[in-house]
Amino acid sequence: MRILPLVFLMAANTSVADPAVIEAVKGTKSGASWRFDVTLSHPDTGWDDYADGWRVLDMDGNVLGTRVLHHPHVNEQPFTRSLSGVEIPASLDQVQIESKESVGGWGGKRVTLDLDNPIYAR
């Protein structure tokens, strides 16, 4: 029974991370590929907890492109970053955008973007 208090202590110290919120998305077709400008907000605290990426998915969850964010944006909220050269199969008329943060990983609310009108604002 000595293990039980330790389990409760460990659970009490586990924090649930806030997901990075997708505030806006703009998709622009350029030839055969797409550019996505994604605006995120997240209560970045520094290197221990920050929004560290976003990705473009098809509607089945297959990854089409990933934007890695290499540092926190503590004093820049919300912030926009772009990803160019994303190949979207011609058969698709929608994609999803998903955010990532360093503590909780991929998650939060996915945004569906209609490629006939590729603009989203929360």
Structure description:
The chain is mainly beta and 122 residues long. It has one domain (3-121): Immunoglobulins (Immunoglobulin-like), CATH 2.60.40.10. The protein is built from one helix and eight strands, in the order H-E-E-E-E-E-E-E-E. The chain has one helix at 3-12; strands at 21-30, 33-41, 51-57, 63-68, 79-87, 94-101, 105-114, 119-121. The protein has a four-stranded antiparallel sheet, with no helix packed on it. A four-stranded antiparallel sheet has the order 4-3-6-7, with no helix packed on it. It is elongated and about 40 Å long. Residues 3-14 have low confidence and may be disordered.
Instruction: Identify the CATH homologous superfamily.
Output: Immunoglobulins
Overall tally of domains = 1
Mean pLDDT: 87
The amount of beta strand, in percent, is over 45%
- Reading the helices and strands in chain order gives HEEEEEEEE
Helix amount: under 10%
Q: Which CATH class applies here?
A: Mainly Beta
Key structural traits:
signal, 4-stranded antiparallel sheet, Immunoglobulin-like, mainly beta, 122 residues, single chain
Outline of this structure?
Keywords: Signal. With 122 residues, the chain is mainly beta.
Topology diagram in text:
Elements: H1 3-12, E1 21-30, E2 33-41, E3 51-57, E4 63-68, E5 79-87, E6 94-101, E7 105-114, E8 119-121
Antiparallel strand pairs: 1-2, 1-8, 2-5, 3-4, 3-6, 6-7
